[in-house]
Design goal:
Length: 287
């Protein structure tokens, strides 16, 4: 059989209803940006998608758009820093799909500051959101991953090049993203041998989202106690500078859809022998 014919069979016969047909996926932070694109791509490949986001209106809009396009999705909005919400998220997911096959820990934002000016609140908030919340969600979902029913199961943690190479002004975020890479490897080693659970991180570089847009655009998030955190990068600095992409071999930033496609690829059976890895999605930067 020719390699071309084998590819046709793999692409069209083995997965006629989609790469993720019948699987149930939680995608956190999927009310917008990379998470929303991942939710749509997963649904297009046959997954039942749970849209998790702190912004209920945005979460509902994504779920509704998926349903109108013929996919299957529900919104379960809430705050990832609320332990009760994490229990609700898992409970409603299982009610919706009877199991959980995929968790994408994508929710998060940046709250930058140089070391000598960073407050305890900035530090604690980012560590809690990017490390503690994903850990608690995975722990809550453990009964649906530590099983031997032969179904595919994987966890994808969204990291950053800041967690691999560091980035000035991001002591909190850099540590958190390095930490999620460590958690990824622990999950892979604990849940791989007996249960076949795969766990990987994706370290994104410059992706076009509200976190890398101009700070002057006015995007912000609000903490549970009401404090507004401005998002983005001041014009002329960092990824907003005119030469920002010169060290990227592809000479451009990535799109949210390209980033989400990497998540889909890693969740799919095409990556069935990949686990415990930090996959760099950077357009070639830092290779």
């Amino acid at each position: 059989m020719s390699s071309q014919r084998a590819a046709q069979i793999a692409g069209h016969l083995n997965y006629p209803q989609g790469l993720l047909a019948g699987q149930v996926a939680i995608i956190t932070g999927s009310g917008q940006g990379i998470g929303a694109e991942a939710a749509r791509l997963f649904a297009n490949e046959g997954a039942k998608v749970v849209v998790s986001d702190i912004d209920a209106a945005k979460a509902n809009a994504v779920a509704e758009s998926i349903s109108k396009s013929g996919g299957t999705a529900i919104a379960v909005p809430g705050d990832m820093l609320d332990d009760k919400y994490l229990k609700t998220l898992v409970k409603k997911t299982v009610e919706f799909g009877n199991t959980i096959n995929i968790i994408v820990n994508n929710a998060g934002y940046t709250w930058d500051g140089v070391i000598h000016k960073m407050t305890d609140k900035q530090w604690d908030n980012i560590i809690a959101l990017h490390n503690t919340a994903p850990f608690k969600l995975v722990r809550e979902a453990a009964p649906y991953f530590r099983v031997t029913d032969g179904q595919p199961r994987c966890i994808i943690n969204i990291s950053s090049t800041s967690g691999v190479h560091g980035n000035a002004g991001q002591a909190n975020y850099g540590l958190a993203k390095a930490g999620i890479n460590g958690l990824t490897k622990v999950i892979a080693k604990e849940w791989g041998p007996k249960f076949g659970v795969r766990c990987n991180s994706i370290a994104f570089g410059h992706i076009l989202t509200r976190l890398t847009a101009a700070k002057e655009d006015g995007a912000f998030v609000t903490t549970p106690d009401g404090e507004k955190i401005a998002l983005g990068i001041p014009t002329g600095q960092g990824s907003q500078s005119k030469d920002a992409n010169l060290d990227i071999p592809l000479r451009r930033a990535g799109t949210a859809t390209e980033a989400a496609s990497a998540i889909l690829a890693l969740a799919s059976p095409l990556s069935s022998y990949i686990t415990g890895q930090v996959i760099m999605v950077t357009g070639g930067r830092n290779m």
